[in-house]
Amino acid sequence: MKKEKMLRLTLTAIFTAIVLVVQMVGSSIKVGPVSFSLVLIPIVVGGMLIGPYGGAFLGFVFGLVTVIGGLTGADPFTAYLLQAGTSSAIFTVLLCLVKATAAGLVSALIFKALSNKNKYLGVILASAAAPIVNTGIFVLGTLTVLAAPLSANPAFVN
Fold it and tell me: N or C: which end of the chain has fewer CB within 10 A?
């Protein structure tokens, strides 16, 4: 039991370091104002190896790094949303943390549910779920609460 806890702790630390590095490097790859989330790869793999709590933690770390990138100006899109007003800033922070945490948690739960029956199907569906959940929650949040700040800036409108 003690050995298993130590293994989980070690894996969590290793995958946290990988998430930090990949998010900082991967945020330089952009399509328009939005960067690709290559960081979802270690989040999904970590969630598969560590479990749902590990996946959720790794996702939370990803969300936290996104918020920090917005606060420091390293992520211009997040920085714009944080500067759009107090309520937009609070919602942006919550959106970043919730979408990323949910992506890690949902993908790990899917893998856990399916891995005993068909490990390959579990890997495929967990891998597909992470970007769908991450992007889906982000799009839902931006189309509802953050629509006004985005439509006010011509750079984000067709």
Answer: C
Q: pLDDT tens digits, the chain, 158 residues: what are they?
A: 799 999 999 999 999 999 999 988 876 777 776 666 789 999 999 999 999 999 999 999 999 999 998 899 888 878 888 887 777 889 999 999 999 999 999 999 999 999 999 999 999 999 999 999 999 999 898 888 777 666 666 565 44
Contacts of 12 (CB under 8 A, 6+ apart): 46, 50, 54, 57, 58
C-alpha distances (whole Å) from 36 to each of 7, 26, 86 are: 30, 7, 27
Strand pairing class (34-35; 30-31): antiparallel
